[in-house]
Write a structure and sequence with these properties.
Elements lengths: L20 H34 L15 H7 L2 E14 L6 E14 L8 E8 L15 E9 L2 E3 L7 E2 L2 H10 L28 H27 L1
Parallel strand pairs: 3-5
Antiparallel strand pairs: 1-2, 1-4, 2-3, 4-5, 4-6
């Protein structure tokens, strides 16, 4: 208890003022705003990544190839055969876009299209450096290939996504596994056999019928001679 006549000493730290309702409301609003901002930032980051991953791949640019397995390529091809490129010539493609290569091919075995590949030498056309389609380019002379081709008039056409590729042992094994029929060398179609239509034999002409016209002429001649003689006698 302080001595008489002495004033009590002041407290070292005054008590903190009680928070007003307005201050509590402002603090709560600030916390909510911070939480919402954090959520929006997180969604924006994940959404950006998601849109990047979900965005469609750029459209195929010119000279890109379609994705297809070998079985589908063989199924849609007009002919499949192995052969060696004996020579090739290059010329400007139609429209002046890229080059066209014409390969002379010595056919070895035909897997598909036997009725169409009937000669040991065929021509296979390909393109190089064009702006459209999928170009196979030029094949190496003297190399053997598996040709998976489409009909192209008097020749064949091989695209880059046709399945045409070097005839390695493993690749030929894949073709053998897909094509059930045994491959055979090209065979020319058999020439058409001449056909003769059998005619019903007519009834043979008798000697009397055959001689009748001549006999009639003889009789007419004799009658005429008799008439002339009688006229002369008069």
């Amino acid at each position: 208890m302080p001595a008489l006549g002495q004033t009590p000493a002041a407290s070292a730290t005054p008590p903190a003022p009680a928070a007003t309702p307005l201050l509590r409301w402002a603090t709560g609003l600030l916390v909510v705003a911070l939480v919402v901002l954090a959520v929006l930032v997180g969604q924006g980051a994940s959404g950006g990544a998601g849109s990047a991953s979900a965005s469609p791949s750029p459209s195929r640019t010119p000279n890109t190839c379609a994705d297809a397995d070998l079985a589908e390529q063989i199924r849609t091809a007009d002919a499949v055969f192995t052969g060696v490129v004996t020579s090739s010539t290059s010329s400007q493609a139609e429209g002046g876009d890229g080059a066209e290569i014409l390969h002379e091919v010595q056919v070895d075995l035909v897997y598909k299209g036997r009725s169409s590949v009937t000669t040991p030498e065929v021509q296979v056309r390909s393109l190089r450096g064009t702006e459209q389609g999928c170009d196979l380019g030029a094949l190496e002379d003297g190399e053997e290939y598996v040709f998976v081709v489409a009909a192209d008039g008097d020749s064949w056409f091989a695209a880059g996504d046709s399945g045409t590729a070097p005839a390695t042992a493993s690749y030929v094994e894949q073709v053998d596994a897909i094509v059930i029929a045994e491959p055979r060398p090209p065979v020319s179609p058999e020439p058409e056999q001449a056909s003769f239509e059998a005619l019903d034999p007519a009834e043979p002409t008798t000697l009397t019928r055959a001689a009748a016209p001549g006999a009639a002429l003889v009789i007419v001649g004799l009658l005429g001679l008799v008439v002339v003689r009688r006229l002369n006698r008069r």
